[in-house]
Amino acid sequence: MKTKLLEGVEHREPKESKNFTDYYVKMSKWCSTKFSFLAQGNINVSKEFVKSLKFLKWEITPRDVIIFSRFAIVSGLLFITIFNILFFFFVQQSFLIIIVSSILPFLIAHMITDFPKTEANLEKVDALGEAPTILTHLIIYLKQNPNLERALEFVSKHSKGRISRDIKKILWGCLIGKKTNIKREMRKLGEKWEEYSSELKRSIYLMISSISEKNEIKRNQTLDKAINISLEGIVNKTKEYTNQLHLPTLFLFSFGTILPLVIISLLPIFSFIGKEFSSPLQMFFLLIISLIAIYFYSNSILVKRPPTFSSIKLPKKLDIYPKQGNLKLKFGEKIFEANAIIYCTLVFLIISFPGILYLISEIPGVAFIPSVFSDILQGFNTLTIIWGFGAAIVLYSYGTSWYKKEIRDKIKKLEEETIDGTYQLASRIDEGRSPEETIKHIGKTIDNTIFGKIMKKTYRTLRSRHTTLENAFFNKEYGSLIEVYSTQFKLIMDIFLNSLKRGIKNSAQTLFTISNHYDMLDKTEKKLKTTLKNALSMMKTTACIFAPMITGLIITLQQIIQDGLAETQHSMAGLGFEYMTLPMLQDPGISVEMLQLVAGVYMILLAYLLIRYVSLLQHGKDEVIFKQEIYKNIPIALFIFTFTLIISRLLLG
Predict the structure, then answer these.
(1) Around Cβ 143, how many Cβ atoms within 10 Å?
(2) What are phi and psi of 142, to 5 degrees?
């Protein structure tokens, strides 16, 4: 018969829906199977690259990734060559486009080989963010019962993430007899993570040494010191990192925002010397390379960030989640699902339709649009395409996250309420009240909170079903925690029930300990987020306000330049001069409307990258928070961009 420990170790989380990583792995395997000749003989790769793939456990080899990257280079160069040949015959081509477009396949190949290293570093930081919570759980249990194996078994059932999986492996090894000394294995775990957090190793060593301490007071002091070292280490590293963040952030702001927009403004001016310097295609390639450079540079900053607290883990599958590949949209009280690709494309086409008609109407020889609509299209020109592009991104972010955000907010609120709730539980029990009477009292006094409602439901279940306290909480059919998704809250209730077996006084002391430790964790987390938020507020302001404002002003200034050029041409023609022979008076190679389209799309993509950068620094790999930031801030950027265009044209036009 399987033991509880074995069941806990063998437990597998539900499979997640496919993400970018799944497609990356699939593509690497496919390229390795079909194009193995691209990597003959021995291949030289860095130790960091090999360690990253081993850490991630993606079931692909370094050779697979190298073949994938080389396939990207070969196929990319082939596509670029065909592209340049076609443009050479049908459109005036420039040497600049050939050079810039030829660089792209190599940049993409570098992104392919760099991706595992970036993901491994981000996962390591995210895993270390779970360490303080796991240590807290272990220490709370060890204060009740100084049995390391039982503490690890207990915590592994309620924790998730890389470190939790390492603990489960240790338990599994001890269970089947491969590993016999659990203390030695835990020391090895500390040494494994020492490279990334020396504080974690020290905390584990102190925790192990506390078990041999006979004096309970000294044992508790050692355990408290273990968690304090871990928390202080994170705070100190965050402060140090934040102090060093100013220059990289300034560099990212300057070269990510100002420089590309200056290039946008200068290229049309260069075109007065010759059209070769400012075609829409040239601008597109230059800005794509700029965005790739911003992506790489922001990643180089992100992989060095210190561990913050791990994001709230949501259930992988729930009935309220839409089917894979679908959006879930809410309009008032009505909720419906729709295919993500189809619906986002439809929204883009509907909003962009006037702009698309305008571009078609500008094609020489096309005159199917009635003149009554011509002025309307001229007024909107390409602006609606920018709105449509932004709206599609916002819709996708909202439609794949708002329902998760509601669950996340409930979990977060419950965990915040748990600090005071457990203290109230402890106080009432310490007075000699029975657990049932205490739960009833709390359910009545704080029934406006999630914590209070759970206690009220638990007491109602106790009375109506005449069941045990454990069933009232954890029964899979009628327990009060069926629809509670906080692993932290479930663990606390589990500890609470176990502590009751050792008596009322022991239970009260355990709950006081829980409340104190979680209060300390909460204060530390808020301090870290405040520190990072102050350092990164400028970056978010740049993404949402400054970059759109500068982009709008550049487009208006270019409009003024081109209007002035048109007046000069008209005046010289009236005087009998042939202005077409003067390079300085030639028409720019890009119209204001096309400049507006290219710059507007760049502005949205830049905002996306900068918001990603800020979100990962502040919250780690929390997909829900990231998407929330996108659907809140992209509309602000679009509004500022449009507002700046209107006001600047009214004032300067």
Answers:
(1) 21
(2) -65, -25
